[in-house]
């Protein structure tokens, strides 16, 4: 079947089977490989995108369910000239990424958190990111980056 969705402000159409996951559609049909797939079992959060303004794990939705939806991926987070948004910049400034595999999902989850809660506490950030697994950084710097992106004072060493 043909599936059409708005992705990062552009209308995109592609063929999908009924079983095609949104993550697969984005990566393999639309070529948007910034959305990562780390588990395919809804645990790691590397695949988080926004669908109609809500953060979702794109490996848990079918592409066909998103026909007509408004989808935002990591590719649409920076400015057209490549300037990073404030969350991306904070991840860079506070070393919130090492291998970078989890980063797209972390940034998309952080964007959803800050939209709903512009000044989250450290505990709220940690709770919100429970569905996002990072195997590199131990989360300290990710939490610090999100604190910075929200304009708050950044803890010198975030508590575990
Ligand atoms: S790939 Fe979707 S949660 Fe891991
Ligand atoms: S930066 Fe490597 S998995 Fe998070």
TrEMBL record:
Calcium found in the keyword field: no
Stored InterPro entries: 2Fe-2S-bd, 2Fe-2S-bd_dom_sf, 2Fe-2S_ferredoxin-like_sf, 2Fe-2S_ferredoxin-type, Beta-grasp_dom_sf, Diverse_Oxidoreductases
Domain called 2Fe-2S ferredoxin-type: residue spans: 1-77
One Gene Ontology MF term: 2 iron, 2 sulfur cluster binding
Name of the featured protein: (2Fe-2S)-binding protein
One Pfam family here: Fer2_2
The entry's keywords: 2Fe-2S, Iron, Iron-sulfur, Metal-binding, Oxidoreductase
